[in-house]
Amino acid sequence: QVQLVESGGGLVQAGGSLRLSCVASGRTLSMYRMGWFRQAPGKERESVASISWTAGIASYADSVKGRFTISRDNYKNTVYVQMNSLKPEDTAVYYCAADVTGMTARYWGQGTQVTVSS
């Protein structure tokens, strides 16, 4: 079992930045690909970014490329997503996930709200 706890969400103006953190605990995390997903009201959940624990190879949704950066700290068992140049359309609940495969994952955090005002 893996437990995930997100933090760092909040309200920010368009053009601003936020950094989300996800502390993971439980099973051997190096086995898993970690990721961030988001879901806006009335929309389907979408993958934002993902990264492997070991090689650190990251992938991003086209909508956030060049603005978001995912990273991980293996010693702290923490995954981050640095979000810059935020837009109102980035407003959503952001979820940390472990054992990511494509558009889904086995383990999920509780979510943290990000609101970008125009």
Task: List the topology elements.
Blueprint (H helix, E strand, L loop, with lengths): L1 E6 L2 E4 L4 E9 L6 E7 L6 E7 L5 E3 L7 E6 L4 E6 L8 E10 L2 E5 L3 E6 L1
Parallel strand pairs: 2-11
Antiparallel strand pairs: 1-3, 3-8, 4-5, 4-9, 5-6, 7-8, 9-10, 9-11
Low-pLDDT windows of residues: none
- Number of extended strands: 11
Shape: globular
Q: What helical percentage do the residues reach?
A: under 10%
Radius of gyration: 13 Å
Mean pLDDT: 93
Question: Roughly what fraction of the amino acids lie in strands?
Answer: over 45%
What is the H-and-E element order? Answer: EEEEEEEEEEE
The largest β sheet comes out as: 7 strands, mixed
Written description of the protein model:
- This protein is mainly β and 118 residues long.
- It has strands spanning 2-7, 10-13, 18-26, 33-39, 46-52, 58-60, 68-73, 78-83, 92-101, 104-108, 112-117.
- The strands form two sheets. Strands 2, 4, 5, 6, 9, 10 and 11 form a seven-stranded mixed beta sheet that branches. Strands 1-3-8-7 form a four-stranded antiparallel beta sheet, with no helix packed on it.
- The radius of gyration is 13 Å and the shape is globular.
Overview features:
4-stranded antiparallel beta sheet; single chain; globular; 58% strand; mainly beta; 118 residues
Please provide a brief summary of the model.
The protein is mainly β. It has strands at residues 2-7, 10-13, 18-26, 33-39, 46-52, 58-60, 68-73, 78-83, 92-101, 104-108, 112-117.
